[in-house]
Amino acid sequence: MADENSKKLVSVALNHEENENKEDFVDPWNVQSASATGVDYAKLIDRFGSSAIDSELIDRIEKVTGKQAHHFLKRGIFFSHREMHKILDLYEQKKPFYLYTGRGPSSESMHMGHLIPFIFTKWLQETFDVPLVIQMTDDEKYLWKDISIDEVQRVALENVKDIISLGFDIDKTFIFCDFNYIGQCPDFYKLIVQIQKHVTFNQVKGIFGFGESDCIGKISFPAIQAAPSFSTAFPHIFKGKRNIPCLIPCAIDQDPYFRMTRDVAPRINLPKPALLHSVFFPALQGATSKMSASDPNSCILLTDTPNQIKNKVNKYAFSGGQATVEEHREKGGNCDVDVSYQYLKFFLEDGEKLEKIRQDYTSGKLLTGHLKKELITVLQLIVAEIQEKRKTITDELAREFMTPRKLKFDY
Amino acid sequence: MADENSKKLVSVALNHEENENKEDFVDPWNVQSASATGVDYAKLIDRFGSSAIDSELIDRIEKVTGKQAHHFLKRGIFFSHREMHKILDLYEQKKPFYLYTGRGPSSESMHMGHLIPFIFTKWLQETFDVPLVIQMTDDEKYLWKDISIDEVQRVALENVKDIISLGFDIDKTFIFCDFNYIGQCPDFYKLIVQIQKHVTFNQVKGIFGFGESDCIGKISFPAIQAAPSFSTAFPHIFKGKRNIPCLIPCAIDQDPYFRMTRDVAPRINLPKPALLHSVFFPALQGATSKMSASDPNSCILLTDTPNQIKNKVNKYAFSGGQATVEEHREKGGNCDVDVSYQYLKFFLEDGEKLEKIRQDYTSGKLLTGHLKKELITVLQLIVAEIQEKRKTITDELAREFMTPRKLKFDY
């Protein structure tokens, strides 16, 4: 899974009537939004050919699980899907499926944006009680970045510990780093080669924009991110069963990998994975791009102190407020571009409180300073909780999560 | 390692003064000779940029080892090399190196042509007393042919048993199939990705003629054949030592893989492999192409009965003799195109006898029927011996050869 810039790609604008300069650009390595309010997600659904997560789907999730939908669903943070209804059918029929998500371990410490798919995945796992596999694409990061294999493996282990700190259940979760797992599981390698046989250079060129001067490692990598979508990748969990469907929660920029995967699936007689797509987490500086851990001022890191969090929000969080208090009281703030408000949408669980903040900020009753203060409190609390948990995560525990083994499910 | 046609490539004729139609074509999947006497090997040395194995090198091999050079060397069957003198330097200095060869397991039974690199490798191993690794590229065959993974793995095991029948020493030889070994050895996978990071699509396009409609598995495969050239691929043998050089005996059509490997080596701080190249083994029908196991009438299979051998040689072996006995007595035969004589060059160890046959056939004293009879006797003997040994090779023994383990050498 990629989250940082490494190459410039030519946007394939599917919406030809659109002015080219106004088209958002989204692929696994680059997100460039054309407007200050961020990417136009409705348009992205059109271009990618996925389906919007509508109130009907959210209602059905609540109905079949008997649980409140996660606020990421209700607030449009997970906004798009592919075949989620099929997954709900399976759940109703008490048939198995599993969850797959992942991360490209690029930076020593993860940032708040990196947490989004994992927070949601944890909720899905607890709600549906299914196995979860988490892929750390250390091989991808080695291929795309100027980093040694040893270093990327070290960073991956640190990231795994960050992820575990969110509270995943070791009895139901398998985390793996490609550099290790491919060398541990012949079935996984076989599946990768099967996928590689069914995808041409032309296809990855069209999907990912690869060119002739790209290394052959990059060109064949998409098969490695595709492979965990199929249960044969995990013989220790699924006992070689070929037909256990997969649900992938991920940010929308990862969808190209899984469009490719869904194309290949019927040709290798395996089920297409279903998907749930999230919006991007904005940088502190504004919603026109994703956060990047390589610019520590653009994001809240999981290692930030309460003071660092306070200072970063106060100093960098793009404000939708007016220039002066008087003007703000009069005209009100703009929640659509205000990063503090956007972050609260992600992290403030209390929906009523969030709505009140929205109304008061929009009306001008709530000032930017107070809005930021709300956010600082919320972030400090979440980060402190993760840091507390993180202290208890030993290398040994991380390695246990990464040991191929049977999980608490029978197949 | 590939030995069968699967795609047509455009010959990159390096010798521009040459008439295009007269240029031999040689790559890992196709060998097309422009003349009835077969490929022009001197020209190939020029084009590939390797060095001829001359009498000076052969003398030096005999001098440093104190042993007679193999008749494959004396008769020009192994005719080209890269840096063999460096390997002899190491041997003189009692420094370690190892041997690497391989095979693409494409057909149930191997044919006599497949034996050439293995017969010579066995002699090298016995002469220099060094470890040998043998790669079975079952993944390559799956990618290039219309065959299932299960089937290619089954065929690979049969081929491994054929190879073991030549008498390799289990204490000094590690045989591995990619589909298993890559899933057993994280260090091997890491090395493959390292190589894949340092080779572009443009490079494999230039070297192997890959195109945009080729699958990404083919495009990234060359790294997998390159990887065993480096001792880090075998931590169980070399304990992670990075600097143990490799000598690769192979047919000249495999050289493109190792030119690429030698290009990459300095960029990943590993030693370039040395090479010894053989000529192609001609089809029964003539020296203009390689034998192919997919046409049983073009080759002597290791499973052929004495009668089948006799019939195939009598019926199909292209003759350099004249149309009638009288004409033959008068004008003599042409050893350069006579397949029976060519085969005797490979398999009749007695050099004096071979020379007498050559003289008598050339003068017309020896008739084609008698020449064929000599060959039939030689082939029947060799094949019977291998078949006898083959009966004793159990699946279990083959799996022992294929178990990653320490060999009888200390590093």
UniProtKB/TrEMBL annotation, chains A, B:
Record bears the keyword ATP-binding: yes
GO molecular function, one term: tryptophan-tRNA ligase activity
GO-annotated biological processes: tryptophanyl-tRNA aminoacylation
Entry EC number(s): 6.1.1.2
Compartments (UniProt record): Cytoplasm
UniProt keyword list: Aminoacyl-tRNA synthetase, ATP-binding, Cytoplasm, Ligase, Nucleotide-binding, Protein biosynthesis
Any single Pfam family the record assigns to this protein: tRNA-synt_1b
CDD domains in alphabetical order: TrpRS_core
GO cellular component, as recorded: cytoplasm
Domain of life of the native organism: Eukaryota
Family to which this protein belongs: Belongs to the class-I aminoacyl-tRNA synthetase family.
The protein's name in its UniProt record: Tryptophan--tRNA ligase, cytoplasmic
Enzyme class: ligase
Entry-linked SUPFAM superfamilies: Nucleotidylyl transferase
